[in-house]
C-alpha cells in the first residue's frame, strides 16, 4: 500500500481566443501559481491550446471555413517550441503536467492529450478516439495506441477526454492497466448546466469503478469571448455553464468544492492509501472481475496510412498488393 500523498491541481481558466501564444502564457502562469501552492500534478482543460473549437457548436458547416483554418494556423505541432516550453516548466517545477491541445499533423487536426513527467519527458501523447457530434468536422480520430497508462513521478496516470468517458471499454482499458490517477478534461462553457451535472456524475462514477483518483479540468469563457464567438443571444446560451472542475477520491467524494463558474485553480491532496482501501472491497479488474466470461480486446497498434514491405533485393518496395500482382504476372509470362 502506498503511503505517500500527492498534491494535485485542476485548472479552470479561459484561453486566449486570439491565438496560441496568449494561451501558452496562461498555461505557464498557471503552472507557476500551482507550483507555489505545492502542486505535484496539474491538469488543464480539453484542447486548451490554443482553444477549444467552440465555434463549431454554434456555426453551420458552411460558415466554419475561416475559423477552422485559423485553428490550423494556431494549432500545436508535437514536438515544437510550445511543447518544449511545457517540458521545461515540468522539469523546473518537478511537476507532472497534463495538457490538452489541438495537435496539427500535416493536413489534419487532433484532440490530443499530452502528459509530461516531472523530469520534462513527454511520456504520453494520445488522441481522442472518437470526436463527438460537431467535433467530427474539426478533428480526426485517434487510435488504440493512446489508451495507455503512463508511469510518472506521481504514480500511474491515465487520461481520457470528454465523452470518451461514455465509452466503457476505453475506460476499462485504462482500469486494466491499474491507473492510480485519472486525468480528464472537458471544454466547459458549453451546452448549459446539464453538462456540468453530467460531468460530475461521470467523474464520480469512474473514480468508484476504477478505484482511482480523478483530476478533472473544464474550460471557461468570459462574456466578451462568448459574444466574440457568436453575436446571437439565443445561440450564446449554448456557450455558457457546463463547467465542473473537480478532484474526486476513489471513494467517489469531492476532495475540494468543485469549480462550476469563473476562473480558478482547484487544489487537493491525494492520499494514495485510498486506492488500496477501495480496491480491497471492489477491484473491477482484479478479484471482482470475471475474465473467463468477459474480457476486452485492445488493439494497441498505432494507425498508419501506409504499410511498406521491404524488398529483400534492396530495390524500392512496392505496395504489398501491387508487389504480389507484379510477381504473379511475371511468373505467368
UniProtKB/TrEMBL annotation:
The organism of origin for this protein: Jiella endophytica
SUPFAM superfamilies recorded: Carbon-nitrogen hydrolase
Single GO MF descriptor: nitrilase activity
Cited InterPro entries: C-N_Hydrolase, C-N_Hydrolase_sf, Nitrilase, Nitrilase/CN_hydratase_CS, Nitrilases_CHs
Pfam families: CN_hydrolase
Domain CN hydrolase: 6-272
Family, per entry: Belongs to the carbon-nitrogen hydrolase superfamily. Nitrilase family.
Protein name in UniProt: Nit6803 family nitriliase
